[in-house]
Known about the structure:
This protein is α/β, with parallel strands linked by helices and about 350 residues long. The protein is built from 13 helices and 11 strands.
Amino acid sequence: MSEPVHSEMATEEARVGDPAPVASSAAPAPSSRVAVSRRIASGRTDTHQHVWPTDFVEALRARTTEPRLVDDWTLLTAGEAPYAVDPTAHDVERRRAREIAEGKDDVLVSLSSPLGIEHLPGAEARELIDVWHRSALGLGDPFRVWAATPVVEHDLVGLSEILRDDRVVGLQLPATCLLDPAAVQRMAPVLDVVAVSGKPVMVHPGPAPAVADTPAWWPAVVPYVSQLQSAWFAWHQGGRVAHPTLRIVFVALAGLAPLHHERLVARGGEFGSVDPNVFYETSSYDTRAIDAVVRVVGVDPVVHGSDRPYAQPRDPGLGHAFTHAHVHANPRALLTGEPR
């Protein structure tokens, strides 16, 4: 799972500074994007949260192999230590009230890819993913849903169908299925389906390998970050050429991969111009890291996400204009493809 909430983060004010909404002057979106466009034209968006609806929790409890819940709320996965889940973190009405109180217009929730569900064999993966879709789509406002899909045995028909739902904003993929250019090529049929839908892909850390004698923070800081870096470089190397119009967002600033652009060039690679359809979500990072990435890729691709309940929303204090871009304009561009 993602890193547990540290005490200082749990007690801080979670609201990100909210400037007055600015009316959109963008051209009308294509028909496939109209519903999403209307929802987020001037709203405050958190692009990355997790919440487990009741049916999904019960599906995990019913399992006899990982991932599963035992003793009500102890999560067992194949690679990480047993994790004591906080039941209140997945109390949907409590979460809804908190998001509304903080002024959120859209909260985008996704399956927790570190569980490893997308990597399960076809039928097993599809069963749990179907439960996720059914239960998450019933959450109601302000929640909207990142779809999931099996990555070992592709379900292209099922993916195409779920992406037609107006409450589905795009597809989340685990970084573990995109770790090198060959892996990106293997996922091409899936990526093509998403591109046709006009919706984006979000790349999230996947399952972490078991490593003995490591502290609890190890998976979130070491394998999760390295997965994101690998996926970003793999996309940079071959993904954009193969999928020229697909919008893609990497959570956690892609593990700070863009900061390695000088080393990339020094070792014979090419950074080139900044890709306007690659976005960077900021969860678990604060002022210095966000500012450093902005100096490489600019403000436009940086989008707000919190990874709640495993971390909390933070205001990096980079000014009113940045805040508007971070929580309003840039998420809108990611989700709709409309000009900023």
